[in-house]
C-alpha cells in the first residue's frame, strides 16, 4: 500500500488505537488516584510500593462506584445530552452558518499531513482529559478518604501478626503488643513486599501505621497518622 492510501491507513490506525486505549487509561487513572488518596491517608506513598497494574485496576472499582453516584457527573451527562440534542434540532439557517465557520477549518485540516492532524487530535484529547481530571479527582478523593476513615471505626480486616522486633526499641514492641491484645490492629494494605497495619488510638483521632516486611516479618517502620477529615478538597 503506497501513497495516500498508506497515509490514510496510518491515520486510521492511530485514531483507532487512541479510541481503544482511552477507556483503559481512564480506568487506570481512577485506580491510581484512588490508591494515591487512600494510602496517603495512612502516610504511605504509592511510589514506595510494589503495586501491579492488576491491583490498580481493581482499586478503580470503588472510585467508579462513587463516580457513578456523583451528582456532578450526571449533571455533565445531562448537559451534554441537551447540547447534543439541541445541535441536531437547530434551525436550517443557523446550521448553515455553523457549517460556513467549520468548512474552512476542515479544508485546512484536509491538506495537512496526517501526523499534524494526529497531533491536533492529541492536543484535543489532552485538553479534554485535563477537564475530566478536574471533574473526577474530588469525587475519587472523597471515596478514598471515606473508606480510609472507616478503619478508625474498626470496620477493616482484623489481623494477628507476629513481628520480629529484634531491631526495634522496647516502646514500639510494647505499643504493638498492646494493640494486638486489644484486637485493634487492622490490615489496611499489602503489596508484594510489605504489610501495612493500622492501630487506631482509643482516645485521639490518630493512630500508628506499622510496616512489616513479608520476608522475616521484620518491622520496617512506624508512622503516626491522623484520621482523615472528610469534606475537605
Structural description of this entry:
The protein has 233 residues and is α+β, with helices and mostly antiparallel strands. It has helices at 3-40, 53-58, 60-68, 71-88, 92-111, 114-149, 170-181, and strands spanning 157-158, 186-190, 194-200, 206-213, 219-226. The chain has 7 helices and 5 strands; from the N terminus they run H-H-H-H-H-H-E-H-E-E-E-E. A hairpin with a 5-residue loop joins strand 4 (206-213) and strand 5 (219-226). Helix 1 crosses helix 3, helix 1 packs parallel to helix 6 and helix 3 (60-68) packs across helix 6 (114-149). The N and C termini lie far apart (54 Å).
Topology:
Blueprint: H1 3-40, H2 53-58, H3 60-68, H4 71-88, H5 92-111, H6 114-149, E1 157-158, H7 170-181, E2 186-190, E3 194-200, E4 206-213, E5 219-226
At a glance:
The protein has 233 residues and is of the alpha+beta class.
**What structural class do helix, strand and pairing data support?**
alpha+beta
Low-confidence stretches: none
Task: Let me know the number of strands.
Answer: 5
Strand order of the largest sheet: 1-2-3-4-5
Q: What is the distance, rounded to the nearest whole angstrom, between the alpha carbons of the first and last residues? A: 54 Å
Sheet with the most strands, sense and barrel status: 5 strands, antiparallel
Rounded to the nearest angstrom, the radius of gyration is 26 Å
Number of self-contained structural domains: 2
The overall pLDDT average reads 78
Helix and strand sequence: HHHHHHEHEEEE
Q: Please, how many helices?
A: 7
The general outline is elongated
Helix content: 55-70%
β-strand percent reads: 5-15%
Amino acid at each position: 500500500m503506497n501513497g495516500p492510501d498508506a497515509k490514510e491507513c496510518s491515520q486510521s490506525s492511530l485514531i483507532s488505537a487512541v479510541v481503544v486505549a482511552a477507556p483503559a487509561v481512564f480506568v487506570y487513572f481512577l485506580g491510581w488516584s484512588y490508591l494515591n488518596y487512600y494510602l496517603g491517608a495512612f502516610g504511605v506513598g504509592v511510589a514506595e510500593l510494589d503495586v501491579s497494574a492488576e491491583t490498580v485496576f481493581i482499586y478503580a472499582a470503588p472510585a467508579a462506584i462513587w463516580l457513578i453516584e456523583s451528582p456532578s457527573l450526571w449533571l455533565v451527562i445531562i448537559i451534554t445530552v441537551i447540547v447534543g440534542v439541541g445541535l441536531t434540532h437547530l434551525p436550517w439557517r443557523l446550521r448553515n452558518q455553523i457549517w460556513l465557520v467549520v468548512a474552512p477549518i476542515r479544508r485546512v485540516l484536509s491538506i495537512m499531513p496526517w501526523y499534524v492532524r494526529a497531533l491536533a487530535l492529541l492536543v484535543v484529547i489532552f485538553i479534554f482529559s485535563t477537564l475530566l481530571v478536574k471533574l473526577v479527582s474530588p469525587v475519587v478523593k472523597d471515596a478514598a478518604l471515606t473508606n480510609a476513615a472507616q478503619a478508625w471505626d474498626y470496620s477493616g480486616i482484623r489481623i494477628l501478626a507476629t513481628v520480629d522486633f529484634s531491631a526495634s526499641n522496647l516502646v514500639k514492641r510494647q505499643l504493638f503488643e498492646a494493640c494486638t491484645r486489644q484486637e485493634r490492629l487492622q490490615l489496611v494494605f499489602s503489596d508484594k513486599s510489605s504489610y501495612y497495619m493500622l492501630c487506631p488510638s482509643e482516645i485521639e483521632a490518630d493512630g500508628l501505621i506499622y510496616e512489616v516486611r513479608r520476608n522475616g516479618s521484620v518491622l520496617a517502620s512506624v508512622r503516626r497518622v491522623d484520621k482523615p477529615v472528610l469534606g475537605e478538597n
